[in-house]
Amino acid sequence: MFEAMAELEALCAGLAAERMTPAERGELEAVHEELRALIHSGDPQHYHEVNEAFHATIYAGAHNAYLAEMTHATRYRVQPFRRAQFRNLGRMAKSHVEHDRVVIAILRGDRDGAAAAMREHIMLVCQEYQVYQVYEAYADPL
Length: 142
Hints:
By secondary structure, the chain is mainly α. 85% of the residues lie in helices and 0% in strands. It is globular. The relative contact order is 0.20.
């Protein structure tokens, strides 16, 4: 599922780099800055909620309703796995750095760069979830 999610999100980010209006780019920057402020809060649930808005802003910016619908549906399927990764130490800050690469590429209008940065971000989410699973397995004394 994460492989499919990575490709769908990469396509959205690439199209957003080409199609976002100036107002949508401003909205993306604002949500990105809100996430930056939340890094220090230590509240993974709130970060997760704003993170959802960040990704939804990119889907909308692709200006392809069918693609946005498929991406939301796939994102919903992987949601339990994605949410868990924010409990890993330092993950919120790492996520923000990954988002920063996506935002910079989108703002530059760099379709290929935005797609590559988003693809890498989603695959790192998958890896972080795997780390979380291992930690939980060792933390649970049965």
